[in-house]
Design brief:
Elements (H helix, E strand, L loop, with lengths): L1 H15 L2 H19 L7 H10 L1 H24 L1 H6 L3 H34 L15 H27 L4 H17 L29 H29 L6
Helix pairs in contact: 1-4, 1-6, 2-4, 2-6, 3-7, 4-6, 4-7, 4-8, 6-7, 7-9
Length: 250
């Protein structure tokens, strides 16, 4: 277990020294600065934090940096022929790759949240305007749930992209992600309050935000339902990829 984590950690450290990660870091910095200044300086810290994460722009750029990081880690992993040869089965190879990507994107997500926090510590220092998301629910609770939603959705998309990278060309994966990103910008999100499961939105961009439900608990239950469906779909994609992979080293 320790040796496995050590290998994942070493791969992650190596990825930090690539030119692609430099681009990823610059995009993360731009995202944090833009998010921190877009609402001005009159709102309180938690209100702005929630508002930034609720913006389509933030989720779009986050999806972009996660995609780039996934491709970066996949390339590094796939070039390590010495390790790949040691993989006894396709299943072990694929699971190890997924672990590497999940860890790398978790670290990237934490980095983006920390960068945003640093910027907000400056821009919200004197803010005192407070906007409640859900009545009788502290905004800090809503913020924690929103961050968890972002992390879980990001990791599921990462797994999905890894699986696609093993059966189709990189360009196709990038094209599919661009479609997802563009649709995030173009497809409007309904302002109507969601009060039952039959009103649940199907498109993922509606879940990169908080609010719009009859209550926080109901939103949590709806998100868990949607996440379960995504995981189920990802699992079947994983089984399909295992069958389709003819050899470990592409």
């Amino acid at each position: 277990m320790k040796s496995s984590f050590k290998y994942i950690f070493e791969n992650w450290k190596y990825s930090l020294n690539t030119s692609l990660f430099t681009i990823i870091f610059i995009l993360s910095m731009v995202l944090a600065v833009y998010g921190g200044i877009q609402m001005g300086f009159k709102y309180d810290y938690i209100t702005v934090f929630i508002s930034v994460l609720n913006q389509n722009f933030y989720s779009v750029v986050l999806l972009l940096v996660v995609l780039l990081n996934t491709v970066n880690i996949n390339n590094i992993f796939s070039k390590n022929e010495f390790y790949i040869i040691r993989c006894e089965t396709k299943k072990k190879y694929l699971i190890d790759l997924i672990k590497n990507v999940l860890f790398g994107n978790f670290c990237l997500f934490v980095l983006n949240i920390l960068l945003l926090m640093i910027v907000l510590n400056v821009t919200c220092a004197g803010g005192n305007v407070y906007i409640q998301v859900y009545k009788d629910i502290p905004n800090i609770v809503s913020l924690v749930f929103l961050i968890i939603k972002f992390l879980l959705l990001t990791e599921v998309i990462s797994i999905f992209n890894v699986l696609l990278l093993k059966v189709v060309d990189n360009k196709i994966v990038i094209f599919l992600n661009i479609l997802l990103i563009v649709s995030n910008l173009l497809i409007p999100i309904s302002d109507s309050e969601i009060t039952n499961v039959f009103q649940l939105p199907l498109f993922i961009n509606s879940y990169y935000r908080i609010g719009g439900y009859s209550g926080l608990l109901f939103e949590i239950l709806c998100f868990l339902l949607y996440l379960s469906l995504l995981l189920l779909f990802t699992y079947y994609l994983y089984k399909f990829v295992i069958r389709k992979m003819r050899k470990v080293i592409e």
